[in-house]
TrEMBL record, chains A, B, C, D, E, F:
This is Acetylxylan esterase. InterPro entries: AB_hydrolase_fold (IPR029058), AXE1_dom (IPR008391), CE7 (IPR039069). The active site is at 185 (nucleophile), 273 (charge relay system), 303 (charge relay system). GO terms for biological process: polysaccharide metabolic process. It comes from Streptacidiphilus pinicola.
């Protein structure tokens, strides 16, 4: 496939107007406050033996997320490592769940603790029971609760993701001062959201080809992937719900989180990506507030971006910022 | 596209073994009993003027469905017609809702009353709030509650559909002795289910290219459409949930409803249909108990089957059975 | 699919130069004069009973079209309505014919008379015997008679459509002062042509995603649909017939009819429509002469545009202009 | 793509029942008699210079075909060759015309005369004016006149092709005792038809991946190509015209011509051909009457069969049968 | 996509005749003898630091393969583990190379040593300089040297793979008595080949959806993937090289290696896999000589088979056979 | 498909900056010098009888190409023609070889000698033994030797093509003062390269939809065809090899050859060509040095451009320039 939207030069300058709703900060403050007020305990069960692992210690974690509901996560760390360890919190791509811990062996092999956060409803282990009153929520999660920011699925999921960072303090041997949030696609959008919400509590953010950015443009240019769910929905509702839909999405837009995020940031973008078009990634990148800001460009890649090259690139970038684990 | 599975001769003989679960009848008796026990009133609001209609009287109906929850429906009838009128109850195709009453003008023009039953979650006006604890319910409704027949979406939807027939008695001017149930695709599967559940209360059933039939075979041959949701789900769960999945679906299978249904029946099947493969339609047809049984074969059609020719064909068939409205 | 061509703002300003041939008006005057000179009677056969309809009176009509040849139409009206009734004349999409009257129940239910005009050659009931001497007329109707405006298929079809309006005067109970012409896709192009040809005899025109507009641009941007027939033809004839081809099409171009049409007009356009790209629709819209001019924009729709929402929208718009039937 | 229908062994045995209509021979005798009775002159204009050719002499021929109408052909022969020369009469694939003589240089280079016969309506130079009264003849030629064998397009085209053989006698320097008919796809079906109609006047027939064979099976298995036009037509007419359609096609079926053809025959078949499925080719081959019968099998080819290898293969086969031109 | 070829029952019985060439064993004995005769040293460079890994020790290995040429491999083992360790030798899928060691962290985390063997020409680090005299080797590796078993690419690659097992003895800390060979797709075919060649030196073999099996059938049913390269090649050479091509491939066919392999074996197969159709996998499985033979069936999977579930399944199966590493 | 990149007007002005490497001329001088220094004889074997041709004399030629390796070619000329004849040297499209001489009958029929030059590796008869040390050369020839201009496949192929012109002098009866080089797609790129390398020894050049032009842009806009091989390669190497890749391709770019070529030139371009996008063709055209420069534009064609119309167009253009053969 050819270039998705613009060439590299034009993208570097692409910074569209995108004001956040006036009560954006209040909305999220209230959302997090309410979730925290629900309380709930962080639980961890040692499952290393079940997976027959030798070099990695694995805990099957449940932490309280949105509405205090238990959210599943895997906690992996190098076996026998003395802490406190820097922690990589990983959020997941669209419609993937946390899977098995054996699918997440990179960061612990590199000496980090890693918390892999399940996506409610999308993975095996974390139900998303609440779904509000809306209907015609076909085809997945993008239109689940599209009628209001209060009800939208990603409000709940972002809350879970922020609460995952809260949970780090309750897990022994982790260094809450060195929390890195990351993920690809939906996971990248979630990492960006958490960085925008939690400020200095996030030591670094690494969103790779992030989804959930610049919705108003994304629905007009994405040729594939979950932005298309919104197009399909709006097709049936274009007489009466377009503005309401975007009003909801404005509370979930990575551009608005970027306008608030200050942690050192390493973005990734693929110029032939029809799922998360580069213009939408640059829209967030070019609004990002933090000054330690790097873009990894994959000029010929589609949505698979850097594949296996991405984690070592991130590892190197973290080390340059003093976030490597001690030997 | 060529023939989907078998030629016409082989299909006519295709009657695979397909025993229903031993407690199938008990399950459904309990399900309907519980729904009816919830009670709830049937409400109808006259909306003819809102739609500027002259020859049709339209009511916006809410009747109590699963768990007593209000289900939306349109009731259309010829304006000024003296009742009691025979009633066509129409169920809808996958991911369509009741839409506007102006999209359903055939049966009232032919002198019938018609009740168009919304599909919970799929249409605008009927939420499906309950979704149980399961996860990985991506891509729509087929895997919503797949963990058990208690929780499956189609248990709730079939219950709504049966309760729609109950509601007829509460709507003035309708003849509860002449209730015809019909629909295409998902609507056909629902009509078949209702015929299997309500016995002689259904005067005739007309399932066109019915979905929800012979799941164990359907997932192996369907090349397109919602049976593929099950394949995608089973792909990720084939180590541990295949039998549980089919055990759930066995309670929803049109073959098993056909094994109990006795009303005069007019099926439709399209031999080049990759969505509801003909073998799955014949599996239900060849198990159908009732003896007044007709198959309309569209040998060159895909899932659109007879298009605009289907309703007049059904009208004629009903008249031959004494189910025409009086002039 | 993403946006087909331009964004909403640019489309609103898109008004390309497109001069009609100098003898455009003479060509069409002569064409209509010749057709009318052929005479021929309008015939109507009552077929209500055949279709078992109760609320609608249906006539199977033949009226004289191009060359005086009989053109089939359905005339539907509310049973028992006293006239004279306002009339909606409906033209059809590409390669559809008038089908069955039971497929056209909206306007009569709303109190209008409706005349559904068959498309010669495309439907069951109206042959297009004449096809001139040209060859390589593969793939349908766009290149049938492409060698000259005299011979082109759409000259004959447009003439039929204009003559359908003439026929209204010969059908009892219709109000020739309230004739509305409409249609989608090809039907929209035909409605626009009739509005351009018949001036004040048309009380309103409602072209939805009209085809047959701005051919010179359409062949360069349409990704699907019958404009592609022209591309396929020109591919084989690009050495010698490009200009002749467009010279022929200039006599059939909706932009040129729009430059002459004055009736109140309600257009529809879909911004993700690869069949009738929005730029071609706006080219006609922005050249439209009449001042009572409305565009319904479906920003996320493909060629199916507003689906079932379109007729109620049109009904409302007509009522606002005093064109509602009496109660 | 995998194998289209059967493996090689099963194909070799595939000989389905396929009785010709009882008046098949009478129909065609009358058809040819009427065409011949129309008379008409064979004309040839020397155009070698226009195409700047040195080694080939080219005539632009018009011969009388169906209804005596002039059919275009190119006659190519080696420049300066003394006759009488054996003649290869070439019929063309679907929707190709005779094109330019420079696209047909093989047989004259090999010492033969070649007559390339235009397909009425499909090429530039031979109109097909008559098209009868039928309608819904969308998408090309397969359904043009489908209502009866009298009116079907291929009745006219086959007549042209037979009359092309008649015309050989009127062209100087050709040996009417050594006429070979050939073609690929539609051209192969036409060659087979001519061999079945003209008996011993044809010295050899070489149908490559012939179209127009075993229609009743072809419409059920062809995945692509013009057999699909019939499927699309029958989809809309499956209630009332299936048998009439096949009754028409029975007069045009290569299987029935094969049941009458006796000339030495070289067929070609491609086992991965979705356009002219191998089962349909073998159906004709296995019914072929003549005993000098060869099949060239391309086990891995699609509809392009042997590409550039086919003509040398045919040349060799002709030489083995004493049909090589003299040096 | 529906089932690729047969249902589960028929597959379980599918054991087609497939005799190996009479000199198959001699061919391979000579091939391995010659490679070993070339000698060459095994070299290993410690690169753990370069990849910033903590729990894994990584060596960048070069061992002598075909013609003594250096073949790249990664050797990973748990850091600080005392040997000798059981070793998993991993071969790679088509057109993947060994990539980065960080993409292969499973087996070392489970306490094994793992040797990841680069595929010559396909990966970054191992050229395939020799390519013989053949031409038309388009589209990759399947037709590189197709003219004879001596020259075929996979002769060289299989030799590399067998020599990788030889190399284990030269790497310190590994237990040459517990060598397990495995891989998916091409890697599965290679593992099977090594098991067939090296007999008891292989302690277990785990081919997942193996490629390179039952070529004569595979080319007729594979709908996608590298078997299609052979179809494309044979399309152009079907007149003269079909038998030569299969004669070459007979020396590389997994069915023939299975007829010689005795190690405990765990196969994987996906019933909706168009790349390595299940019939070809069962052809090898049902010919396998060894008696400790297990098939993991993924009934709804395509070529991605069990995804992340496969390695834990294999780990468990190895443990049951006493091949788990010591704690 | 719609227009590939720009409209006709913009293309006519499209002349991007594209400086050749500073040592471009030296590189190629050295390359040709070395090839010529290898010497080698031109051999021709008369094969007319083998192909049973009458009007054409055919020689199976081997001439020394890159590294003195024998390159296959067909030499065709009108039988009995007295020389010296003007010669058309034809280069071939991607992954086609010279095939059979019977596939190349146009130019000899028009009185020219024609030399059809095999493409090493791509055709049957000319191996490309050398392939250097690079790896990951999947999918054909574009990345074979991509590591340096020294090693790239097209360096060898272009050298063969230039040496084909040298060989003309060694073949009797040909006029080395009237050598025309031509080809389509890859053949067009090769013809352009030879024109740039050999200056006045080329009497005319006719590149049709040339490939190998303006690589840096081509990889960003080509939607299909072999430029995509480069995209696939760069996807995996975008961290470290992008600039090296383009540095290699700069030595093979038709834009740079055009900057040196002076012979009269007839280009062809297709505006709907996704394989060789029109912008890349115009980039070479608008940099072409020679002043007798013509573009044939096929505004509605895809990569098949003018099909059978191209050779007569070229024939005419040559005649206008005094390059017609004598009668």
């Amino acid at each position: 496939m050819p270039l998705t939207d613009f060439g590299a030069d034009e993208l570097a300058r692409y910074r569209p107007e995108s004001p956040a709703p006036h009560d954006f900060d209040a909305f999220w403050r209230r959302t997090l406050d309410e979730a925290r007020a629900q309380g709930g305990a962080v639980k961890a069960e040692r499952v290393t033996e079940r997976f027959r692992l030798h070099t990695v210690e694995v805990d099957d974690v449940r932490f309280p997320g949105w509405n205090g509901e238990p959210v599943a996560a895997w906690l992996l760390r190098p076996r026998g490592a003395e802490g406190p360890l820097p922690v990589v919190v990983t959020y997941l791509g669209y419609c993937a769940g946390r899977g098995l811990p054996t699918e997440h062996l990179f960061w612990s092999a590199a000496g980090y603790a890693q918390l892999v956060v399940d996506s409610r409803g999308q993975g095996h282990d974390t139900p998303d029971r609440t779904q509000g009153d809306g209907t015609q929520w076909v085809e997945g999660f993008m239109t689940r609760g599209i009628d209001s920011p209060e009800n939208h699925y990603h409000r709940r999921l972002i809350t879970d993701c922020a609460r995952a960072v809260d949970a780090v303090a309750d897990l022994p041997g982790l260094d809450a001062g060195r929390i890195v949030v990351t993920g690809g696609s939906q996971g990248g959008g979630l990492a960006l959201a958490v960085a925008g919400l939690l400020g200095e509590r996030v030591a670094a953010v690494m969103p790779d080809v992030p989804f959930l950015c610049h919705f108003r443009q994304a629905v007009q240019i994405a040729g594939d992937g979950p932005y298309r769910e919104l197009v399909n929905y709006l097709r049936w509702h274009s007489r009466d719900k377009v503005e309401q839909t975007f009003a909801t999405l404005d509370y979930l837009d990575g551009v608005h989180f970027a306008q608030r995020a200050t942690a050192p940031a390493l973005f990734g973008v693929a110029l032939m990506d029809p799922v998360c078009p580069p213009a939408t990634v640059y829209a967030a990148f070019n609004h990002y507030v933090g000054e330690d800001l790097t873009m990894t460009v994959w000029p010929f890649a589609d949505h698979s971006s850097g594949c296996g090259s991405t984690p070592p690139t991130q590892l190197e970038w973290l080390a340059e910022r003093g976030l490597a684990p001690e030997r």
